[in-house]
Predict the 3D structure of the following.
Amino acid sequence: MKSYLTILFLTILTVSAQNKGDFTFEIEANQIRYNNMELANRFLRDTTSETSKLFGSKYINDTLKKSGLYGLSLSYQPLNFMSFGIYGSYQSNRFNRTYDQVSLGYDISMNPEFLIGHYLEKVTTSSLTIGASTTVYLNKIFQFEKYNTKFLQRFQIGVGLKGGFSLNAFEIGNGITGMQYITSLLKTNDIPGQEHMNYQTFRSQNWSGSIELKLGYRIVQRKLFSTFGVKIGYQFHSTPVLKDKGDRAFQYGATNEEMKLNFSGLYYGIYLNFGK
Amino acid sequence: MKNFLIIALVFVGYNTIAQEKGNFTFEIDASRIHYQKMEVYNRYLRDTTDVTTSHFGDTYLKDTLTASFLFGASLSYQPTNFMDFGIYGAYQGNQFGREYQQQHYVGGSPSTFILADHKVKIANHSYIVGISSTVYLNRILHFDNYESKFLNRFQIGIGFKVGYAFSSIEQTDWIEKFELLTPGGIQPIIKSTSLKGSARNWSGNIELKLGYRFVEKSYFSGVGIKVGYQFHSSSALRNDANAAFQFGATKEEMRLNLSGFYYGIYLNVGKK
């Protein structure tokens, strides 16, 4: 159903664009610095769970404080100083944490033997946002194109606003990447077929928004144009409690704290667009 | 970041060339694909020998994945009037639901048991990104020389696509609700757990497109139908521990074969 609505929206957008105005397609890559990721970071450094006790102090410095933030948008410019469009953006991070554990087992003849298990915990956070965007072009309002300087004519200053719906996920995978038994001092043999992985996924949805300043330069100026620029902005994006399919919250630590992700933060990056 | 720079570089080069001549076309399509070789996946859907699937009974024995929707979008550039080249993305996915009841031992003293209502979701997804090309027969056969408006606006194309596919499967099992069978027993800790597998492979398509340009100004818009065949077969799907996604009594490894015939509609917009 969502796919059909997207197609319908794109159809209306493309057909309406037959009459006037310009289309711009934009891709961007940013780095965002999260301001309020305390809950996720407390979990990453938590040493009270049975698994994290086995990490020792190996991952005590794990911190989620920044991420790549990638996006693309398609916008339509009905007025020469303003555009409206749709956009999508994605951000994701993962932490792979490993530990080895020795346990006592029995061989096929029921003789005791020592086993070494290689364990993996994979923690992933991700957020996909789809929404509407608008940009006000200050270079058009201040009529930069009337200046004789080629640089100013091609310079672009925009203030952008975005509002979108975000689908967020927090996933923990736990498993064994290999197992061996100790045959004698410093000698081990692999036990094949022990590898496995189980995942727990917790999701949430929320509205998010961002405001940004864009500084660009038209590198090609003919019937079509291409603009390359830099942008800086702030993303407002705080999730409610993340829950699994059974509507149960992800809890951690000695106090069973419930997990929320706060992707809010300052971002900066580059963008590239082209249009007619 | 490295991937973005490569994409950006290709994009800049592509657009710079596009300033000189030719047209851009943006296209979206929705098709129905009929899979030809989904035997492994269908064996998995009907399997009742696994730890989880043994509880299903014969309720889901007729579940089959034979057809799916296939959505795509592409951006192409036409350097000569009879041929275009572009980049494209496509998505296809399906999901199946299961329900079963199971009694669990929770622990405690005296021993606590619960009767749990389980739900299972089985989902497969495949994303493809790649390059595409279309040869326009209406240009080669000079349909635009005819006086008929219909023929002038009629489009016949043969399209080729080659892409890199990211395929995955996920089986999630959770307890929707439960009944405490031991009065005064301990409360269970309930988790939703998933098994996953993913694989990457090359895929390809060949298709015939029949379209009509219903708007013909400085921009054009066309709508049409297409029929084609998708070649898309994955290797064994594996998880992060590099273990294959296995099922059934013989621990068969899961592979997705999304090859099949498809037919659908497309809509494009471009600059003349």
Remarks:
- The longest strand of chain A covers residues 155-184.
